[in-house]
Design brief:
Tetracycline Repressor, domain 2, Arc Repressor Mutant, subunit A, 2 domains, mainly alpha
């Protein structure tokens, strides 16, 4: 008998790197079209056209428009969480954890408001279009990432306490601080879009938010 040996196909590091770059380019163009023309205009065909590719070539990386949009939002959200969690872990003073959260969220997005608009603005528009964030996407991609942030904050703010009530309070306070940071960045984004700068300087608004939440945590 002649045994048949199945060869395992493995991608070389060079091929894997090329694929990674191609996916990144596709995501960047998808983000550009989303912001420029809206969710309805962002199709696999339009992305392919911008890149000078064929639509079937896009299918090699993303099987559908829905998969492309969900991957884009998930990737940008993960970048945010990684950046903020890293800043929190570097902060040695537990009394400044929430201030660090707010400031690092601001620093992550202030120079790239387009990413903020995709994650938090386009998500609302997408839910009203043909591309929706189904329960599986939220459960598997979004919630684990935001959960990692709030787990980190809860642990730092609660210290060694074993009180479930105390931990819930600290987690709720952390969530409130995060939504406040998001609110500030949303106003900055609106002001930028309308070319109407905020009346209050960013550094003063940041200082106030950080002070209020660090005092609340104390």
């Amino acid at each position: 008998m002649v045994s048949k040996i199945k060869k395992r196909v493995t991608r070389s590091p060079r091929v894997a790197q090329k694929r990674k770059r191609a996916r990144r380019e596709i995501l960047d163009v998808a983000q550009l079209i989303l912001l420029r023309d809206g969710p309805d205009a962002m199709t696999l065909a339009s992305v392919a056209g911008e890149l000078g590719m064929t639509k079937p070539a896009i299918y090699h990386y993303f099987p559908s428009k829905e998969a492309l949009v969900r991957t884009l939002v998930t990737a940008l959200l993960e970048e945010e969480i990684d950046s903020v969690v890293m800043a929190i872990e570097k902060q040695e003073d537990d009394g400044k954890v929430l201030g660090t959260l707010i400031r690092s969220f601001y620093e992550h997005y202030v120079g790239r408001l387009d990413a903020l608009r995709v994650v938090y603005g386009q998500m609302q528009l997408l839910s009203a279009s043909t591309v929706t964030f189904d329960e599986a996407t939220l459960t598997e991609n979004v919630h684990p990432r935001t959960g990692r942030l709030f787990d980190t904050l809860e642990a730092r703010l609660s210290g060694n306490t074993r009180s479930d009530k105390k931990r819930r309070q600290m987690r709720q306070l952390a969530f409130t601080a995060w939504t406040s940071a998001l609110g500030l960045m949303t106003m900055i984004s609106v002001a930028d879009s309308s070319n109407d700068p905020l009346a209050q300087p960013h550094d003063e608004l940041l200082a106030t938010l950080c002070r209020v939440f660090d005092q609340a945590a104390a």
